[in-house]
Amino acid sequence: MITVPVIVPASPVRNVLGTLPVRPNGTRHRVPETPRKRKTPVSDRLLGIKVLKESLADVKYRVRERLGLGFDLDDWQGELIRRLRQGYDSLLVAGTGYGKSIIFEGLAALNKTKVVIVVCPLKALERDQVKGAEKKGLKAVMVNEDTVCPEIWTGLRQGHANLYYVSPEMALSSSSVQGW
């Protein structure tokens, strides 16, 4: 018969489950831990995030009234508008006809002193969006290589319109960026 010596390590090793093995004398090895305390926040709000008093229902109602819509916004539309107004970054991916236009039109309608810039991939889509926004009482401008002129950038800086539809090429060109 072969005997195998039992080797007990000086410091216990955790097993696969993360528990410490029991020592031969029946005691468990205790690892000193750092005490965990939650820090109290310096302020109630995150940096750059505004606290809005209006509810989701308020946002949906105000957008509907300002744009003269004959339908109610979906909850996701109202919530996205509300969060964008608070200062959160957002990304919306939705198919054709899902109501993306209401998001930026609603932002423009609720924030008359702010400018909403929409990067639009097609000139025809830019034209349609501008017409639709103007029918809803918004001041909208289309910016692409066909419409470029210094007055557009002056108007942007002075707040003549609150909704700008910009082609990707214009959004990335150095002369356009200087105009912003």
TrEMBL record:
Database matches in SUPFAM superfamilies: P-loop containing nucleoside triphosphate hydrolases
Molecular function via GO: 3'-5' DNA helicase activity; ATP binding; four-way junction helicase activity; nucleic acid binding
Matching Pfam families: DEAD
InterPro entries recorded: DEAD/DEAH_box_helicase_dom, P-loop_NTPase
GO biological process, one term: double-strand break repair via homologous recombination
Domain DEAD/DEAH-box helicase: 77-173
Coiled-coil portions: none
A Gene Ontology cellular-component term: nucleus
Similarity comment: Belongs to the helicase family. RecQ subfamily.
Record protein name field: DEAD/DEAH-box helicase domain-containing protein
Organism of origin: Mycena albidolilacea
Lineage: Eukaryota, Fungi, Dikarya, Basidiomycota, Agaricomycotina
